Amino acid sequence: MQDLQKEATVAQNYLSKIAKLVEAKFDEHLPSEEAIPRNLHKAMRYSMFAGGKRLRPALAMASFDLFGGTGDSIWFATSALEMLHTFSLIHDDLPCIDDDDFRRGKPTAHKQFGEATAVMSGDALCVLAFELIARTGNAEAMQNLAHNLGTFGMIGGEMTDIDSEGKKVDLATVDYIHYHKTAALIEASLVVGAQLAHAKQKDIDAVQKFGKSIGLAFQVVDDILDIVSTTEELGKDAGSDLDKGKATYPSLIGVDASRKKAFALYEESLTALDSISGDTSILRAIAAFIITRVK
User: Fold this and answer.
1) Which residue from 56, 111, 162, 174 could staple onto 81, CB 3.0 to 4.6 Å apart?
2) Residues 2-291, CATH architecture
3) C-alpha dist (Å) from residue 136 to 53, 74, 293
4) pLDDT at residue 2 above 80?
5) How do beta strands 102-103 and 106-107 pair?
6) Which residues are 102's β-sheet partners?
7) CA–CA separation, 286 vs 266, rounded Å?
């Protein structure tokens, strides 16, 4: 565990460094609050700058660097990925879905700006994300993102999550929800970085497997934290999964077994990197950071 904590510290330093760089690009890529419609643009910027680990941009950058990527195309991707993630959070928090009051320690977008503006700001971020990805000139990267966002990706997972609330479900359904709702965009972030670096297909396949495993682990850990943490610690409403009857690992197999599952996925993610000849230490450190968020 001590070695994992050391790796997690390396990852935290990397995430902090990347966050500063990508947030400067967010500022460039987002519309100014002075541009009409001002309230919409203010809402978009409010949610984008509300904080967060910037995990998805960092994974894309780490993958891009791992495979020797050059040029500025990655910055369009890092902004697009965080916009897509933020769009999903805005919509996830809405009264018609999870009805959450706080996100990252601040009022959610619909609490701050009203439901209509929140919906529109999420929509606008999604559209802007694809405008930015188009600027990379990489059709495969755009296709990958669209697939992992749509009905066979994050949106499909969110819909299944909603449909499963309050119902008795099996582990296969929970796996489906976790993979599509969370892991798909994490996986896509790594793949986009590799695609923009023109990596070999076998290496793209390797980081895709890594992303699937660590993305699933990320959601299992999130489910555990929802139970064992406070609202102040999480920066969002704690215990909401249980209150809503969400389909989660802890609800099916308990917290201890869920911890074991998360660590098994972590080990699986490291194995996926073994076939890559380059320096995968940053990706391994990020995996350690994800798993050590819960003891």
Assistant:
1) 56
2) Orthogonal Bundle (1.10)
3) 24, 8, 34
4) no
5) antiparallel
6) 107
7) 10
**In contact, 196 and 136? CB cutoff 8 Å:** yes
Report the predicted TM-score, pTM, of the whole model to 2 decimal places.
0.92
Contacts of 30 (CB under 8 A, 6+ apart): 41, 44, 45, 48, 128
Least confident stretch, 15-19, 231-235, 265-269: 231-235
Higher-confidence position of 180 and 238 = 180
The 3-state secondary structure of the chain reads CHHHHHHHHHHHHHHHHHHHHHHHHHHHHCCCCCCCCHHHHHHHHHHHCCCCCCHHHHHHHHHHHHCCCCCCHHHHHHHHHHHHHHHHHHHHCCCCCCCCCEECCEECHHHHHCHHHHHHHHHHHHHHHHHHHHCCCCHHHHHHHHHHHCCCCHHHHHHHHHHHCCCCCCHHHHHHHHHHHHHHHHHHHHHHHHHHCCCCHHHHHHHHHHHHHHHHHHHHHHHHHHHHCCHHHHCCCCCHHHHHCCCCHHHHHCHHHHHHHHHHHHHHHHHHHCCCCCCCHHHHHHHHHHHCCCC
pLDDT tens profile 194-243? 999 999 999 999 999 999 999 999 999 988 988 876 555 555 555 565 55
CB neighbour class for 226 (10 Å; exposed up to 12, middle 13-18, buried from 19): buried
